[in-house]
């Protein structure tokens, strides 16, 4: 079954009781049992829900996995991965990553004894150099947030397997339509399904996808034991969003390529981060492991000014100044004061995340209108 067909049909069957084509929203907290333990596969809605089960089957198929585990948010999904580890275990992560992921590793789990290390994962040798006997997890994000760096998933996963280390790839920026890390050797794929998978900025959701049955069982146990599960309405909305995932992401990618070229030529822009450019250091890797280059673009201003960045953000009309990404509408954000504010400034600056960096999530509007909107905003500086 090819990808576009999977989005519509994988794991989805008409409701046997009514024939409903769309998966029903099973808005229930518990299920009737004929006797103790004698039930129809569902006992309590934290543990199982038919709407969630259908979604998990669909997500597993999209990432070419065998099982998916759904959570109330992307960070709740990440939290479940952290709970696979023990005190004194080391995590090696890319040094350019989502601020919420950094915050969870450093401010939540480091006090419990986990030891995160941050390194430029675009250089696989730098990863292998800092591996020790205590390294238990490699945390990969590619394309990275917000600098759009590219990590060679296959090479990093080969290093991990050599040292018997677990790998988790945050695939949020790419979506399953553009990239499938399990096929490249990853153990776990994570999505903030709030973003491209849901695609309509109307639900918060997270998921993990795996191939290994033992690992799936551990994560399902954590899902049930810790309870950070999504509600059935959330799962229904994600299932609804998935049906147009391929169409939405393809249109957004086409728009992003045009917007990136416009910004690259603009006299008030000093640099544009977009892996679709042949000059991008990770272009060849992105071309090999992705189907397109994504719909995220970040750029820096020549003025290198926080104030000028704020002028641009406050003068767009189609680009809405907001956190998040991956919806049908275009968003503009200031990572240093928004999504990455929890990362110390000295750490942000090491990866080039300046106070004048602006991040764009390109939507599916008419691209000419998007360019006109950015042009007018840039005229204000």
Number of strands: 12
Overall number of domains: 2
CATH class of the largest domain: Alpha Beta
Largest sheet: 7 strands, mixed
Write down the overall mean pLDDT: 96
Summarize the helix and strand pattern as letters: HHEHEHEHEHEHEEHHHEHEHEEHEH
Q: Could you give me the name of the CATH homologous superfamily of the largest domain?
A: Type I PLP-dependent aspartate aminotransferase-like (Major domain)
What fraction, in percent, of the residue positions are helical?
25-40%
- In the CATH hierarchy, the architecture of the largest domain is 3-Layer(aba) Sandwich
What's the N-to-C terminus distance? 50 Å
Percent of sequence in beta strands: 15-25%
Structural class by sheet pairing and helices: alpha/beta
Q: Which residues sit in consecutive blocks of at least 5 with pLDDT less than 50?
A: none
Radius of gyration: 21 Å
Shape: globular
Query: What is the tally of helical segments?
Result: 14
């Amino acid at each position: 079954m090819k990808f576009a067909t999977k989005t519509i049909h994988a794991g989805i069957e008409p409701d046997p009781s009514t024939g409903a084509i769309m998966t029903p929203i099973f808005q229930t907290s518990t299920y009737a049992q004929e006797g103790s333990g004698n039930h129809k596969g569902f006992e309590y809605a934290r543990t199982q829900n038919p709407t969630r089960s259908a979604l998990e089957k669909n997500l597993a198929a999209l990432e070419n996995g065998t099982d998916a585990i759904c959570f109330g948010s992307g960070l709740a999904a990440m939290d479940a991965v952290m709970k696979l580890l023990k005190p004194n275990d080391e995590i090696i992560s890319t040094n350019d990553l989502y601020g919420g992921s950094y915050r969870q590793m450093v401010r939540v789990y480091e006090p419990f004894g986990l030891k995160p290390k941050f390194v430029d994962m675009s250089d696989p040798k730098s990863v292998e150099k800092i591996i020790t006997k205590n390294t238990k997890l490699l945390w990969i994000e590619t394309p990275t947030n917000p600098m759009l760096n590219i990590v060679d998933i296959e090479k990093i996963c080969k290093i991990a397997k050599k040292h018997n280390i677990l790998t988790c790839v945050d695939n949020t920026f790419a979506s399953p339509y553009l990239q499938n890390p399990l096929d490249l050797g990853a153990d776990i794929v994570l999505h903030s399904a709030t973003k491209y998978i849901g695609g309509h900025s109307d639900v918060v959701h997270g998921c993990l996808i795996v191939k290994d049955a033992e690992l799936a069982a551990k994560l399902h146990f954590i899902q049930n034991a810790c309870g950070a599960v999504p509600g059935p309405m959330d799962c229904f909305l994600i299932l609804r969003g998935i049906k147009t995932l391929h169409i939405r992401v393809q249109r957004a990618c086409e728009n992003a390529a045009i917007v990136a070229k416009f910004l690259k030529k603009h006299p008030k822009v000093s640099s544009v981060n977009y892996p679709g450019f042949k000059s991008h250091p990770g272009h060849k890797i992105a071309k090999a492991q992705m189907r397109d280059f994504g719909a995220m673009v970040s750029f820096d201003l020549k003025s290198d000014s926080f104030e000028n960045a704020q002028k641009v953000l406050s003068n767009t009309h189609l680009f809405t100044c907001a956190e998040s990404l991956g919806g049908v509408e275009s968003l503009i954000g200031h990572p240093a004061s928004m999504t990455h504010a929890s990362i110390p400034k000295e750490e942000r600056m090491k990866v080039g995340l300046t106070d004048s960096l602006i991040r764009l999530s390109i939507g599916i509007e008419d691209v000419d209108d998007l360019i006109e909107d950015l042009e007018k905003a840039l005229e204000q500086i």
